[in-house]
Amino acid sequence: MKTDYLDKFTGTLLGVSIGDTLGHPFEGVLRERIYSRFSDFKEFITSNKKLFNTYTDDTQLTLHTAKALIQGSGFNEDYLIREYVEWLEDPPIGPGFGCISSIQKLKYGIPWKKAASNSGGNGTTMRVSPIGLFYCNDIKNLTNFALHSSNITHSHPAASAGAIVVARAIAFLIDKTIETKFSVDEFFDVIISSISDSREKIWDEFIEILNKIKNSLNISLEAGLIKFSQVGVKSPYFIEDYLGKAFVHPYTLSTVACAIFIFLKYLTSFEECIFQLATAGGDSDTVGAIGGSLAGAYFGKENIPSDLIQLVRGYKDILKISEELWLKFKEIYITKSTHNYL
Ligand SMILES: [Mg+2]
Fold this sequence. Notes:
It contains 18 helices and no strands. 53% of the residues are buried. It is an all-alpha fold. It is globular. The chain has helices spanning 5-23, 31-35, 41-47, 57-72, 77-87, 97-107, 112-115, 129-134, 139-151, 157-173, 184-193, 201-214, 221-228, 252-265, 270-278, 284-299, 306-311, 315-341. Bound molecules: magnesium ion (MG).
């Protein structure tokens, strides 16, 4: 079956923004506390629309990544830095320390190798999905550019591992559909191999975590979140009070682990999947954004309910950016290859 790239590009960017918007009110809140507020999340959204009136830095930076790829006809370090510096004027909504501190340095012309913070936070993984989309048929460049895009602001290997794995997962999911489904074993083989050249010890640690998720998909969502929400987390990211509770720590390995776990538990409905992602507890907006990028790449826009799309602030701009990114992708990859065949 032919891949509807426009549907998948749009679905992915909408997935980020919907997950971010729905998770935002629950950022830093324990899962059990989130669920004490409602019995039906859909109803809760309808009657509390004001709570869900914005997305955060996750969506902002994702859109800036997309714009840099459009302007540069692909990855261009200077365009990426320029877009991230422009984000400072948006202004940033709920930014993480790793991003804001390094991008402020970039603004003053400090080279990225010196500006990057040694943060293992989610700042780079949450914005990487446009790279996964643009390079979905060019995996060598996908890996290189996901890594490079991460290093510009975060020198920590957990950040780059997360960015590569999420970009690779998006490329894997883009030609899968809910009709054709996909092999979960193959999904893990592909994402694990993207970081298997053991450049960093933490990358090996992440592979072990991914294998654990693969073998834990039969446990309940709650049990899985307790198991993975602080996996691999070390000081200063560890919050002792939340030991043994479902509270996703804002550390890349634990956040990506939980996002993947939840996504794979809810492969039948975008809505159910995104609801579970956004109410994970802890770094809920980012679990929503990262897991939302996977769900959006898999389900595509056509399977996203329109009321969720319309909930997103400025969603028409997101539709426009998605289309521009797709057009640029088509120009570089599809038109060229068609031409070669002729
Ligand atoms: Mg955020």
